[in-house]
TrEMBL record, chains A, B:
<dbReference type="InterPro" id="IPR029055">
    <property type="entry name" value="Ntn_hydrolases_N"/>
</dbReference>
<keyword id="KW-0315">Glutamine amidotransferase</keyword>
<keyword id="KW-0808">Transferase</keyword>
<dbReference type="GO" id="GO:0016740">
    <property type="term" value="F:transferase activity"/>
</dbReference>
<dbReference type="InterPro" id="IPR026869">
    <property type="entry name" value="EgtC-like"/>
</dbReference>
<dbReference type="InterPro" id="IPR017932">
    <property type="entry name" value="GATase_2_dom"/>
</dbReference>
<protein>
    <submittedName>
        <fullName>Class II glutamine amidotransferase</fullName>
    </submittedName>
</protein>
<feature type="domain" description="Glutamine amidotransferase type-2">
    <location>
        <begin position="2"/>
        <end position="251"/>
    </location>
</feature>
<dbReference type="Pfam" id="PF13230">
    <property type="entry name" value="GATase_4"/>
</dbReference>
């Protein structure tokens, strides 16, 4: 199974600390060595890095760990191949444009017999169940709403409906963002923490590293981190319920 | 005006040498400091790097100069903003998926009054004339050929037709690739060189650096480099004619 990491904030924040721990799961503290990727929204633009090398051995992962790219929405993924060979086109996250916005998607799990009819403009380039699911999601959203994105409550309900359809085929933990919100769906395993004032120190579970967030934040900052398994040993992580879709905006899960 | 660089080869080749000279035009030997970007095809996957910092100051450009990513098709761009502010979403190259392939596009020039009706699935995320032209091209290709890509001669004729329509609005030097071929159109300024056996040494025009290609190639290798102005001082560069579209496959311009 793969591992997922996402961040959603109310002010542009770098993910260096969390990514450093996460990247160690790509070949060191865990066995996810079939590629990795990360996408950062910056305004409406996206920086997208993928590599078929293990995150622990990748010069690009090394760059990300030392280059504080500030972003409101980030999605990262470390791959353990279940379907599709180890190749760049099969590395998550995947990016497509719809409604004049980029959409970023990553998936952890394994879908069986998921072969939707893809007759719209979104086609997989690689051969993973995950990219098929992403193309299906976008095709369905475009079929339902045409050329104009609906209001958030309507969009959220549609995505909840669609991920439930996909999840009938197997495990479908997934992250999706259009740069304004982060949608996270849990089939089996996902948890989150909201870091906000008063900030404290956090210690990584995967590396002997801690950071005192009170030194690098303002009282108004709010950062939600969503991940497959907790990244730190001294913060309280909230588990998702199986089948739950949460939407994060400005660093907070929406009720 | 911006600067363009592309590479098309018959064996996966790194672009470190040519990119090193090219990147110096982003803020050192020339004044193109409003961002830059590069996209590498690797199989059917794409590595896409964009940055709104000048190439000369960018840590990501530094990585590319030292990390030999091997690719059959590469497109790079250094931006001097004419339309659209300096922002990540306005950095070339742009990437979209069509027909289950990624398409990569970069443009040098300035289009006046080019406001095509974009009612298909490809919409600009940023606000440049260039991204509008790219979306128009893809929309028109999809309108003409539906869900199935045509044979190369038909595709080439369609692209030649469409770039001529766009070029009526101004300068439209452009590079386009779907990972199998590289399409290069010249309005005003573009030249190319084909490096092949017997390989010799080449000296960069923008930096005191030379490389002896005979040391790093086999007799079967063939590499076409297409660029706004010649990158080296001791190779014979062939200029495009104004209005000319060339298609490069396996390191050779197709007749």
């Amino acid at each position: 199974m793969c591992q997922l990491l996402a961040m959603n904030c109310n002010v542009p924040t770098d993910i260096v600390f969390s990514f450093t721990g996460f990247a160690h799961r790509g070949g060191r503290t865990d066995t996810h060595h079939d590629g990795w990727g990360i996408a950062f929204f910056e305004g409406s633009g996206v920086r997208h890095f993928v590599d078929h090398q293990a995150a622990i051995a990748s010069p690009i992962a090394e760059l990300i760990k030392h280059y504080p790219i500030k972003s409101l929405n980030v999605i990262a993924h470390i791959r353990k191949a279940t379907q599709g060979q180890v190749a760049l086109e099969n590395c998550h996250p995947f990016v497509r444009e719809m409604w004049g916005r980029y959409w970023v998607f990553a998936h952890n799990g394994d879908l069986k017999g998921f072969e939707p009819v893809l007759d719209g403009p979104y086609r997989p380039v690689g051969n993973t169940d995950s990219e098929r699911a992403f193309c299906f999601l976008l095709q369905q959203l475009r079929d339902r709403f045409g050329d104009t994105p609906p209001a958030m409550p309507v969009l959220r309900a549609a995505i909840a409906d669609l991920v439930a359809i996909i999840a009938r085929h197997g495990t479908f933990n997934m992250m999706l963002s259009d740069g304004t919100a982060l949608f996270a769906h849990c089939s089996t395993k996902l948890c989150y923490v909201v870091r906000k004032y008063p900030f404290t120190a956090a210690c990584l579970a995967d590396e002997d590293l801690s950071v005192d967030f009170s030194q690098v934040t303002t009282p108004n900052d709010r950062v939600a981190i969503i991940v497959t398994t907790p990244l730190t040993t001294n913060e309280t992580w909230t588990e998702f319920a199986p089948g739950e879709l949460k939407v994060f905006v400005d660093g907070l899960p929406q009720s």
